[in-house]
Design goal:
The structure is a single chain. By secondary structure, the protein is α+β, with helices and mostly antiparallel strands. 29% of the residues lie in helices and 20% in strands. The two termini are 38 Å apart.
Length: 323
């Protein structure tokens, strides 16, 4: 499996707090004070396509009582990388709630802080990807029977009901991005505000590839919190929950590669094969059932950051942004 490119380290809560005096400059909600958070349902279920580029096919999940349908816009379904923006907004909202502040659905932040948190550089390509991601988040249509804040919804909604990039121009006519303004959908707003099922993410999450991100999220939302405890699920159910669109055999191969690296933060992943049952004469034998066993690792002392200053798009042209 291709390893994700290295990124610039995320700013720590302490270093971001040093920039907090900039908060009121444009009535911004950034910089983020605190860690990255995510709503439990968004962790547990496949609302986003496992793709780095536009995914044009619908995504669906129907298992047990949970039903999810995701329809693409003209620019495709929102991807696991577009989800970074949703996580950032959810983290801003959670931080405001913890601080006892009034919180609404509108958020205004700098791309500079978003990129610092997610480990992207501030290149022209990064800003173009931000614009494309906002379009997909606003255009993707989601329908689910998962209730949020004690209320259910029928029909479709988008992650962002509004998304705008505010900029000014220099004397030479060059655009300088001032802020990103979004309006969070009712469903996710209610879930964060009322249900309070918000979990923190490992600091290395943004360094993971698409499949590793989903394995971590499912483990975090559904797996054990106590070190040494196990969570077991059959391979096909796990494939559905991850949102893997290719055949089960491909998923099994991909999962074996991941399990051998120990790359999932805080969790160990193992594939366990059972005995294949004997079939009646003339029908051969069924494949041995395969289970995925996820075990919570014991907490390790935090080491100092050793990442270099390279970003995932190193060597790209810088694009200015107003502080």
């Amino acid at each position: 499996m291709t390893q994700p490119a290295s990124k610039t380290p995320r700013k720590t809560a302490v270093s971001r707090r040093a920039d907090a005096s900039q908060r009121d400059l444009f009535q911004l909600d950034s910089p983020l004070i605190g860690e990255i958070r995510g709503e439990r349902s968004l962790m547990a279920f496949p609302f986003f396509a496992l793709a780095k580029s536009a995914w044009m096919k619908p995504v669906s999940y129907h298992h047990g009582p949970v039903s999810i349908e995701v329809r693409p816009s003209a620019n495709g379904v929102a991807t696991i990388y577009d989800k970074e923006i949703v996580l950032y907004i959810a983290s801003l909202m959670a931080a405001k709630i913890e601080a006892g502040e009034q919180v609404g659905q509108d958020f205004r932040f700098t791309a500079h802080d978003l990129f610092a948190v997610t480990g992207s550089n501030q290149s022209a390509r990064s800003y173009k990807r931000l614009s494309d991601a906002l379009e997909r988040l606003q255009g993707t249509q989601i329908k689910t029977n998962i209730e949020a804040g004690g209320e259910g919804e029928e029909g479709f909604f988008s992650w962002l009901s509004e998304a705008r990039l505010h900029y000014s121009k220099t004397r030479t006519g060059e655009k300088r991005l001032k802020a990103v303004q979004v309006r969070l959908c009712d469903w996710l707003y209610r879930a964060i505000l009322r249900d309070r099922q918000v979990l923190d993410y490992a600091s290395t999450y943004f360094q993971l590839g698409p499949i590793e991100r989903r394995i971590y999220e499912v483990a975090r939302a559904s797996g054990p919190d106590v070190p040494g405890r196990e969570f077991c699920v059959d391979l096909e159910t796990f494939r559905l929950q991850i949102g893997y669109q290719n055949p089960l055999s491909n998923f099994r191969t991909a999962l074996k590669q991941v399990a051998g690296t120990g790359s999932i933060p805080d969790y160990d992943v193992e594939l366990v094969e059972g005995e294949a049952p004997v079939e009646t004469r003339g029908r051969g034998r069924k494949s041995a059932p395969v289970n995925v066993v996820i075990t919570r690792r014991a907490a390790e002392p935090e080491a100092g950051q050793e990442q270099g200053s390279e970003s995932r798009e190193s060597g790209e042209e810088e694009l200015g942004e107003e502080a």
